[in-house]
What we know:
Blueprint: H1 3-13, H2 22-28, H3 30-51, H4 54-74, H5 79-89, H6 94-99
Amino acid sequence: MTLHDLAATIAARKGTDPAASWTAKLLSQGPEKCAEKFGEEAVEAIIEAVKGDTSALTSEAADVLYHLLVMLTACDVALDDVLAELARRQGTSGIAEKAARPSSE
């Protein structure tokens, strides 16, 4: 399964019965809940990375990618738009790219 396949599956679940699908349930709760779940999964991945547990990190990383795609779907942001932004940044120093951002992060 590619990220595009997963994104398409998630998009197909938007607006379907929340009782029949975890994805539909998350999406029915709105972007805020989807963002909260993404954050929880990101923290879990960080914990596993710090612990050095590569097997657990692999599992958590899959959860992070899934929940990122759910959050993007909830916010009507297409995976292809994110990939286009990455392509736009390709070949640009991360330091230069960050310095060119309008606000300091």
